[in-house]
């Protein structure tokens, strides 16, 4: 085991320079548990600004990147550009990218492969909708989404898998620790069988969906939950308590 706890923040399309200054002030004040990897997903236009301000114990991630290094893709940014400004991380396949911008499993997998090949680390997001959960499709959906990525990559060292049930994102409805643990454990079984026992043991699988300072400790106690991806609460000083949930 020995998987280092990982807490990502996802600012989504929120904030401005003044707001980022405020977030960075509480990140600097911390204190941040040194046993946790902390990465915050920032809107593309502010990536370099956030990188310059963030303390050394907080990495900045892009929230999206395209599947090629450059070219006629108006409005997109590439992993090469993210690396060029000195960043190491990108969030890919967030449910908002999948649902609102129509990103398919295949495209998310292609983006993941390209970002890894370009030297970035990837927070790859998966998760079922409420209708899929109610239809008993949760496992089938998260296995299908993970399989698309597994078909394209062999080295999972620089991947963090974020299980984010869509019905829990931004809704205030958190998966119970048992519900989240159950899916994480199933994913680990799937990885053991379909990828390798080593990847199953070492891959960090984090949970996202209405994580707050109030529920993080309990969620973090589950054996297969290796951290969180946090949306709304990552904009507030409470984020520090979530980062330190294992203390
Ligand atoms: C997210 O955006 O990935 C997320 C989990 O959002 P929230 O924490 O607001 O539910």
From TrEMBL:
Keywords: Gluconeogenesis, Glycolysis, Isomerase. It catalyses: D-glyceraldehyde 3-phosphate = dihydroxyacetone phosphate. Pathway: Carbohydrate biosynthesis; gluconeogenesis; Carbohydrate degradation; glycolysis; D-glyceraldehyde 3-phosphate from glycerone phosphate: step 1/1. GO terms for molecular function: triose-phosphate isomerase activity. One of its GO terms (biological process) is glyceraldehyde-3-phosphate biosynthetic process. Its EC number is 5.3.1.1. Homodimer. Belongs to the triosephosphate isomerase family. HAMAP family: TIM_B. This is Triosephosphate isomerase. It comes from Cloeon dipterum. The lineage of its organism: Eukaryota, Metazoa, Ecdysozoa, Arthropoda, Hexapoda.
